[in-house]
Predict the 3D structure of the following.
Amino acid sequence: MSIVKLARPEIQALHAYDAAEQVDDTIRLNANESPRDCSIGNFRRPLNRYPEVRPQKLQHALAQRFGCMPDQLLVTRGSSEAIDLVIRTFCRAGQDSVLMTSPSFSMYRHYAEVQGARLIQVQSDAEQDFAIDVNAILAACDDTTRVIFVCSPNNPTGTTLPRAELERLLEQRGEHSAVVVDEAYVEFGNHASVIEMLHRYSNLLVLRTLSKALGFAGARCGAVAGQADVVSMLSAVQAPYALATPVVECVEDALQDDQLELARRTVREISSERDRLAKALTHYSFVLKVWPSDANFLLVRFANADRIMRRCAERNVLLRDFGGELANCIRISIGSQDENNQLLRTLDTLEDEANG
């Protein structure tokens, strides 16, 4: 059974853009391109020519990295574009709904609002370390719920949904909902990617990104993985030539063995710094709680978050204050050892003032 039938009828009937044929070592007089090669930049592919409609070499490289078949993966402009594609594909404006846990990544809400889909939010409990409650998710779903987003590890709480609970959610929703697992931070925890479950669950979609562990946020490259028929449908919705030539070549280079080893080393360093920083923060009198995290950040509750934010800004240290349901909670991204030490020195000044 496939979730293709959950998609909007006009999307099911949509044909992908019929681009001009691209063949190496040919005279291309079929795509209204300029014959003059651009002299800007040092790229392997000429910039006067359109890139591939879908970058095949990059698609294969990312599929190998993430552990799926090439036809199960669509390369996107960051995982944010994948979120937009999924919602536009499955949700009819004014009729269908998107479910997300809260607090979580705000772009799920944003793209649901852009599409005109109703948003269902399921609260997680701070006193339970923001554990995602699958029973609450299932109870909140209705006949209109086409897409369920689960960020795991979750931003901004760092919480990972246990594999058994995800399987229960996938089985219970079956052909009624696409379950999208956002794994932007998966490399920083001790849990394997759920992409390996694609062959068992036709309603599973997985988002991956190169922005975090690989350190290529500026390249804006990510991917969505799922069953081949669903990925094909998402590809039809995505704009042609979505990935620019400089981005494609940059990411191809980032996936070379030496760069991947550097990324693995960086992840280990960040994870070690996360644990060091978490321990150090507990020693301050104005830190009320440091939540456990499987990501490259910590969520911390302070006695007075505004004061922390002001003092850190004065010392050129920028943090993220969410407010609202996370009042007095600040998300601290893990920087280099020197950057983290600068944060601790700033907090030391506040501790000295508190002690008189």
Q: What stands out?
A: Residues 29 and 35 are 9 Å apart (CA to CA). The radius of gyration is 22 Å.
